[in-house]
Amino acid sequence: MQAAKCLELRISADLMQEEAFDELAISLQALGQAVETEADSGDCEYIAWFAMDEDEQASRGRLAAAMLLAGMDETSFTLTTLERQGWETAWQKDWHAMPVGERLWVRPSFCDGPSDGRVDIVLDPGMAFGTGTHPTTRLCLEAIERVCREQAPQTLLDMGAGSGLLAIAALKLGAASALAIDMETDSVEACRENALINGVELEVQLDDTPPARRFELVVANILAAPLVWMAAELAACVDQRLILSGLLTTQVDDVAAAYIAEGLVEVRRDSQEEWASVELVRP
Questions:
Q1: At which positions is S-adenosyl-L-methionine bound (predicted)?
Q2: Calpha distance 241→262 (Å, rounded)
């Protein structure tokens, strides 16, 4: 069952660079992020939402400690408890339908579908991370679209699936089957719900390690450190092609090296803003 509450973190854009906030929010497993600008004053705030444990004070303490370690003092940010309805309202006002790549259209259910024949993906993330707005997600979607245009895979693994967006996109672009794995129960539930909404059959698994199976295409939009830690296990899943993201451009060399050491060959890098993806194949 999805969490009834979440914590909303806000900080003025004057106090932290956007890329630093993005990296911090993702490292803390944010459910979603947004930028809010006041129309009259022009003041800008960065916002992120986080799942709350049963112990609210412990959840607040962990986030506050992370902000202090990032160099912020206690007066520079706010933490607010939101009921689930408050979370839904918060992300809805900052998320709109959008085209991705050449063929995809990603939208929440309260927005209209595409008018130009794009592949329609309906995504209401609930309490799981992944709406498609972050550059790393877009990089993965564009890579999946390109691979499926060349030849849609028979099998796909989406490791750290979040809302299930990447796996669902692949299925709607012609992949024959897909497995989505995430370590969070909210994400597993979101994957199942979003697959049902989009009319695709998606295998979903609660786990924090890659399975002992091979897949034609493996995608993982996580973070640099866990991608390096799981390099041996994740590389072993790759039958043909691997797409990795969740990386700053400064982190790609180290992550790619970890997978090259496991016998894969780098064939492509792409970037948007300060974020990057890397693609490797099994020779």
A1: 137, 160, 182, 221
A2: 13
